[in-house]
Design brief:
about 260 residues, alpha/beta, six-stranded parallel β-sheet, two-stranded antiparallel ribbon, about 50% helix, globular, binds uridine-5'-diphosphate
């Protein structure tokens, strides 16, 4: 995998030690096109506060996030953190919002897309929804599979036969991102991205939060309302606030000691 955190990378901000790209949705798609043209393989991650808290304790996941060629600000907390750190991100770049735009670009360029993950049948529905949105989109394959190691040979065989340019993996974090990091070089895929629950949204299996809630950065409340079992994962949010406050404070102290004011 190519690790391009620095080469021709536009503005990035480190949030809790993980670089995040300060790009809008359309700039993200342009950046993906740039990655596709590089002739190397790239991993894309969609960073939210849960990722950042998990990465604190999960060394392999942290390494994957740090090495990713592109890291979008998926969570409202990440957008806010970037702003507080003085590197404004215009808004969230979630997998669910990015996929329709990416599908349009794939259709335009003729890139084949493979949809891996989610419950049986969901990836096919998500692919069909994107094809309807972006006529001409080439669906190279769909497969639910599972993120367990024993399933890898079968999945890699599907990918070998399908030869997609773009791979979308919906196994939830961190499994999907670790899966891509382990297997990307064993495929001929150029760009692979973990997309979390995006197939469920596209397939109509789960509703997205109303736009107003999304714009207010409160999508997590809606998801918690629909799926109360998520409360354990949501405990990452207060941890995120505390860790971020600590980092901001440390930065301020360092700045003072640097004699800038
Ligand atoms: N998933 C899967 N296999 C697994 C675990 C998860 O296919 O072993 C899928 C699940 O069906 C869902 C997606 O991974 O489509 C993860 O969705 P979730 O809403 O948890 O992700 P988030 O958006 O919160 O990261």
């Amino acid at each position: 995998m190519a690790h391009t955190a620095t080469d021709a990378t536009p503005s990035r901000v480190a949030v809790l030690g993980v670089p995040v790209d300060c790009l809008s949705l359309s700039e993200t798609v342009d950046r993906i096109e740039h990655l596709m043209a590089s002739g190397r393989q790239h991993q894309i991650v969609t960073v939210n506060p849960e990722f950042l808290v998990a990465a604190r304790y999960h060394r392999a996941f942290r390494a994957v996030l740090r090495r990713a060629s592109l890291a979008t600000a998926d969570g409202a907390g990440v957008v806010l953190a970037a702003r507080l750190l003085g590197r404004p991100v215009r808004g969230r770049v979630t997998g669910a919002d990015l996929l329709p735009l990416l599908a349009e670009r794939c259709a335009l360029r003729g890139w084949g897309v493979f949809f891996l993950g989610a419950a049986p049948g969901v990836a096919a529905l998500a692919a069909a929804a994107l094809q309807q949105h972006a006529p001409g989109l080439r669906v190279a394959g769909v497969w639910s599979g599972s993120p367990v190691l024993a399933d890898e040979p079968a999945i890699l065989e599907h990918l070998r036969l399908a030869r997609p340019e773009v791979l979308l993996v919906a196994y939830g974090a961190p499994q999907q991102d670790l899966w891509i990091a382990r297997n990307l070089t064993r495929t001929s895929v150029q760009v692979a991205m973990g997309v979390g629950g995006a197939f469920d949204f596209l397939a109509g299996r789960k509703p997205r939060a109303p736009r107003l809630l999304r714009q207010a950065g409160l999508e997590w409340i809606y998801r918690l309302w629909l799926e109360p079992w998520r409360y354990k994962r949501m405990l990452a949010l207060p941890a995120f606030v505390i860790l971020l406050a600590r980092d901001l404070l440390a930065q301020r102290v360092l700045y003072r000691h640097g004699g800038h004011y």
